[in-house]
Design the sequence.
């Protein structure tokens, strides 16, 4: 998902800033796994991210943002298993920008991740559910591409408009990924976090 560069405010404080000495991470094949999105605890919005595992910690880099915005999570920093579960639920496969021709498959009940109206010009993505679609006949642009002008009424499940309904256009909407395999780096980090929490010895040999 294309997240706006405007959206991440510089006042954000990460749990810990990791700077320098980046581990090279070449052995892991990225190609087989869907891109990740992560719901930042800073603003509870969804961002496309890359993850790396560094010394029993997970580093999250936000696509399109400089490293100052990276978030760093040590595996031994969780107080209980609920916190680990809550962290796990912050990850999922990346949502994708809805295309005009995908309009017919969006209807009442479709779960989406979308940008909400903002007076500050920030573009942030939150989860919503489609309540109704006010369909209009699709036009064609000069190049003959189908253009959706329909109004999508969204009921927000998160973000500043939580529990409210607003109107969105196709360009505001990303469709949720059907993929639900979890990225192996996140999986092994969560495993490690649970092992540390329960005080079991680490057998990984690294
Ligand atoms: Zn449409």
Sequence:
């Amino acid at each position: 998902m294309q997240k706006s560069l405007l959206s991440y405010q510089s006042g954000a404080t990460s749990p810990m800033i990791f700077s320098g000495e980046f581990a090279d991470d070449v052995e892991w094949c990225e190609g087989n796994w869907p891109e990740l999105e992560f719901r930042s605890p800073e603003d509870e919005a969804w961002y496309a991210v890359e993850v790396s595992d560094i010394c029993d910690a997970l580093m999250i880099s936000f696509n399109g943002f400089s490293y100052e915005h990276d978030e760093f999570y040590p595996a031994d920093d969780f107080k209980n298993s609920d916190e680990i579960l809550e962290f796990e639920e912050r990850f999922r496969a990346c949502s994708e920008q809805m295309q005009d021709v995908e309009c017919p498959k969006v209807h009442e009940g479709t779960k989406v991740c979308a940008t909400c109206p903002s007076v500050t010009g920030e573009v942030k993505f939150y989860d919503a559910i489609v309540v109704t679609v006010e369909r209009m006949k699709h036009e064609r642009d000069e190049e003959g591409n189908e253009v959706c002008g329909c109004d999508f009424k969204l009921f927000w499940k998160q973000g500043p408009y939580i529990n409210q309904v607003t109107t969105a256009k196709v360009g505001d909407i990303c469709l949720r990924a059907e993929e639900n395999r979890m990225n192996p780096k996140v999986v092994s980090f969560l495993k490690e976090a649970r092992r540390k929490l329960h005080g079991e010895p680490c057998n990984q040999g690294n």
In short: The pocket of zinc ion is lined by residues 103, 135, 138, 148, 150 (CB under 6 Å). The chain has two helices and 13 strands. The longest helix spans residues 184-197. Residues 1-28 have pLDDT under 50 and may be disordered.
